[in-house]
Amino acid sequence: MRSALPFLVILLFVRSLHSGAQTMLPIPPMLLGSTIDLQLQEGTWEFHPGEIVDTYGYNGDLLGPTILLEQGQQVTLNVTNTLPDLTTTHWHGLHVAPEHDGGPHSMIMPGTTWSPSFTVLDKAATYWYHPHAHGLTDYQVTKGAAGMIIVRDAEEGALDLPRTYGVDDIPLILQTKPIMDGQIMLHTGLDTVVVTNGVRQAEITLPAQVVRLRCLNGSNERTFLLGFSNGMTFNTIATDGGLLAAPIPLTRQFLTNGERVEVLIDLSGMEGQVFDLISFGSELPNGVMGSADVSLMGVTPDAYYENDLNGADFRLLRITVGSPTTDPVIDIPSTLANLVPYQEVDATVTRDFVFAPEVMSPVGMVEGPMTINDALFDMDVINETITLGTTEIWTFTNNTAVGHPFHIHDIQFHVLDRDGLPVPSQEQGRKDVVFVPPNSTVRVITRFDDFADPEMPYMYHCHILMHEDEGMMGQFLVVDPNAVAEPAGLNNALTVWPNPSTAGIILLRATETEGLAEVIVIDATGRTAARSLLNLTQEGTSMDLSALESGLYALQLHTRHGQTRSYHARINLQH
């Protein structure tokens, strides 16, 4: 693990994390390389001077380091859980196999380490990571567990864009938090503490040149409408999954939960000026979390009006313009990326997803629990099965009183339309979160390539974290029709002895293969309980499962090249 920042910058970041009165914008340290270590841990923080709040963070008290990845590189991410509860870590927006995605089935128990390893296939963009344990996501993210991921590629690298991290390429994790009596409280609706990169009243000095702001909405429920206090025009250059075809000049940028956007601001000739990055909540349409009235149906709960941020404009970051750097970017490119959206004519499957409250009531229409196709999330139920290589259109119909930011794991999609109308230019790039307003229908198109697994699912869900935790989530399998079919019974080519096992030390023998193979052990809930790279021999190879609890487990064997599994067996552990 190496850091791309000088030690002094890292030190300033660490000092800022331990001083709630510090308003200088913290720049998270950057981690890069083929092996990256993250420790999810407890901490404390001063959001208000003198008020110590219990928090979570990766490698620190709050938030986490920025991870830098290059397209095409191989990376192993070691995530160690030192929290008192189970967790997961989801690489939001990255295109990885389901076993590496970090969804609810990839649980990291206290005191253990999860080590997904994969090739980075994604385009240059801003992604992020956060816990995704079912029923715990809201709590753990709101407590502070989140960090940014930056991916670079050759197409983005060929452009003259700001990319000096912390100088003219600035990460901004934008959040509001509900803090009462020194505690982070959930489901109060009183997320009145505004923080950027973890601090209130954040300030930064930026050079008088073109600067890139990478904005992430990491809030549990609030949507932002970004703009600047001086009314200046900025250029949006990238959405969730990568660069747009060309910069889009704007004075307002909608940013809902889980979304990312990259904007360029031209500060040339503005040396000495001071202005603010603002969320213009007064301009948000009703039906959006953070607007003056969260519902279009007159059913807004009374508690919503107790939050002074709702329907109000508030500051996210104060910017002072300083001197330019020695080699500044002074121009904004006229073109960016070669976007090739999926074509509607190529879609062979259409799926419909209808959002509705579990119980039809005024509060239920806004706060939920919310269902998808009349069902709440069930870890044991696969809601959709998708064929590898298929182009599909997913249609989301919102029959609730509040808008939902909807996220699909595994893929990036293109938004076809909202209520039959084309979406604005800034939404026409690669996306993994789409906003579905109340009483509206949104269609997206995507293709499911590269990864298939008949047992480990991906998720789709609302990114209002309370809605997600209460069941507004489903899961899907991607299956490969060309995979070698497995027999209905056990494959006798893989034998396990002794079975049942009381000591947990087993002998594996595959009669039709030798050499390196990965053995994955799956528990009854479908999560990976153990995995090991073994050298299989005709005489048999031992594997230690003594750390696992008693129960029935499935064993899956992969070749060292990661091809479709060709053997399987079951083991009954009886400690």
What does this entry look like structurally?
The protein is built from five helices and 41 strands. By secondary structure, it is mostly beta strands. Among the domains are: 136 residues, Cupredoxins -  blue copper proteins (Immunoglobulin-like, Sandwich), CATH 2.60.40.420; 80 residues, Macroglobulin (MG2) domain (Immunoglobulin-like, Sandwich), CATH 2.60.40. It has a six-stranded mixed sheet. Strands 15-12-17-22-19-20 form a six-stranded mixed sheet, with no helix packed on it. Strands 3, 4, 6, 8 and 9 form a five-stranded mixed sheet that branches. The longest helix has 11 residues. The radius of gyration is 24 Å and the shape is globular. The N terminus is likely disordered.
SSE layout and pairings?
Elements: E1 2-3, H1 7-17, E2 30-32, E3 35-48, E4 51-58, E5 66-70, E6 74-81, E7 90-92, E8 113-114, E9 117-119, E10 125-130, H2 137-142, E11 147-152, H3 154-157, E12 169-177, E13 179-180, E14 183-184, E15 193-196, E16 203-207, E17 210-217, E18 224-228, E19 234-239, E20 242-250, E21 253-255, E22 260-266, E23 274-280, E24 313-322, E25 349-357, H4 364-367, E26 370-372, E27 384-387, E28 391-398, E29 404-408, E30 414-418, E31 433-436, E32 440-447, E33 453-462, H5 465-469, E34 473-479, E35 494-497, E36 505-510, E37 515-522, E38 528-536, E39 541-544, E40 551-559, E41 567-573
